[in-house]
Hints:
Elements: E1 21-22, E2 33-34, E3 41-42, H1 47-54, H2 67-88, E4 96-100, H3 106-114, E5 117-122, H4 125-133, E6 138-140, H5 143-146, E7 153-159, H6 168-178, E8 179-190, H7 195-200, E9 217-218, H8 221-230, E10 234-241, H9 253-272, E11 278-284
Parallel strand pairs: 4-5, 4-7, 5-6, 7-8
Antiparallel strand pairs: 1-2, 2-3, 3-9, 8-11, 10-11
Helix pairs in contact: 2-3
Amino acid sequence: MEQMTQRYIDSCPVGCAPPLEATDIALPEGPLLRCPECGQLVSQITAQAWHASMEQFDEVGYNQPAGRELERRYAVARRRLLRIAALLERDPGDIRLLDVGCSRGQFLEAALMLGFQGEGVEPAPGIAAAAREKGLAVHTGLLEEQRFPDAEFAAVTMFEVIEHLREPASLLAECRRILEPGGILLLSTGNTASWTVRAMKGRWDYFDVARDAGHVSFFNPGSIERLAARCGYAVEGIETARVKFHDKGDVPRAAYLAGKLAAEALNLPARLAAAGHDMLAWLRRPR
């Protein structure tokens, strides 16, 4: 039985054996811990606090972008979907895709617009129901509970999910089972080997469970590669993007604007150096 007042994660989520070590990245729940083998960072949040933060994902007003933000999300989704089709060497209409942790289904909507056969899984029951009300094929619950047949999907996507998990390997293993041989798993998460983390440390909002609920496990390209190998994937590529030095309101306006200009100038170098704070991993189930 889970001890709610104890630390939610006690060992490396990637599966490394060495004990976690304290870092100099200070958070309200204590300094982040680091795996000395793969560099994975882990929050010291308690199980009770983690579960409480996860309730945000089923709130009535959660994740309802509109206007330019919604247009931006559709544009990003379209680029990712076309890349999936190119990697699979298939037309979108021949691709059955599953979005894990699909929320209200904006990515699924973009997939359907392009002709993909898309469905989703969402653990928050209220949000899953809201997605179904829009006519989307969204299943309520965890992926492992759905019992999809083996090799059911050509592509699985998972955006901003694995940083919430104590044991991500079990989810990636299930994704591999339901993927066709040669199928693609696309996942996104934050990158702790980024220039943003080097500059902001504990000020980065991605580490703040009050602003980014449920974030407890923080990856870098090396730990993603290690997890992928452990779960039986080949790495097609890992991409990073974006840099920032301040959050709006944390510093005077002039300093914020100067930092924003500097960050924009560093976006391309950060991408080339795998040092952006947004990370995409393209993984393939071997044939």
